[in-house]
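Hey, can you fold this one?
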Amino acid sequence: MVLLSSTLETLPDEILMIIIRYSGNITSVFRTFSGLNQRLNRILVDRRLHLLTDLLRVDIRQINFNYYYNTPLFHALSEQLCSLRGNDYIHQLDQCFQRLISFHIQEKSRQIEEQYRSDREQFRSIRVNLTDEEIHSRDAELKEAFNNLESHSLNFEYLQPIGDLVVGTGARLECTNHELGEYNLAKALNQHVLAHLYTIGYPSGSCLRSIQRLFKALIISNPNLVNNKDYVGNGGSPIRQMFQRFLDEEVPQPWLTSAALLFILLKKKECKWIKKLLQLDSKLIHEVDEDGNDPLLYICLKVKGCRHRLIECLIDMGCDIHKENFHGEHFLQAIQLKRNRKLLKQLTEHEIIVRENESEQLRLASQN
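Sure. Predicted structure:
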């Protein structure tokens, strides 16, 4: 690594940027070159190389490209990334990426909200000037065109007129929310987007953009459409399939290895995904919530229902049963609370926890 650093030092910044650009994806580039020296750290955050905005998929031609680099957060993260050194820089990198992605999500949410308010106001201004007969006619035309999506092959020529009915004429779509009812927005979304998210070549990029514009227009016409539901069979929902793909990636996305995601999965008792997440980043096993509960205590004190297999998994993965939260509680105390009687019974029946014959004290069955 010292030889690599000294060799690269002889090259001008512009050549180094070209080399770095072709050295892999953004995450691997930062993990490879960060911490070698301050010059390389500085080049990695240079806006001419625009790695930080590339990580967020922000096109350099977009207006918000320079806006991002001029924000206080980007300045602070750039300074932090420039000063990376030592053996723990990978963990510091992941923290920086998590803050960066969180900021991007907040910014996109703000932009979408502002655009939605503007589009919604424009839609209302058109519809308020329609007669009852015009409203009925245009709504019926939109409903028929939307229902035809269920059996129609999608292309720009077909999707554009449907969106124009909303944007141009003030038509409003009404659908039932129930998953076993008529064709609705949730069914259309699953059918035409999520079910094909990882199918090569379908939908095409231009078709996806047309679908996105159409769905946005429909929601502008009727915000209640977001409450539509669809029935999903035993194959699992497209969202779950998509999340599984993220977990299976060779180089995981930085947002995956976060404490926030871990505690969300703990709340939902997603044992398989929790195990995968802890395998991706073993340090997450020591994360705590606002009350000082590590994953094991969190399951005992803040999650209900069947939990014994998840507890067994967390213990096997290295959770400390003697670790105390901010209130002085530890695992062996928590499972003896009145609300955890059924849990304790399951733990003993499955020989995860045993009682000492004489003292009646609890211990792990694996402790001989």
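The chain has a mean pLDDT of 83. Let me know if you want another pass with a different chain boundary.
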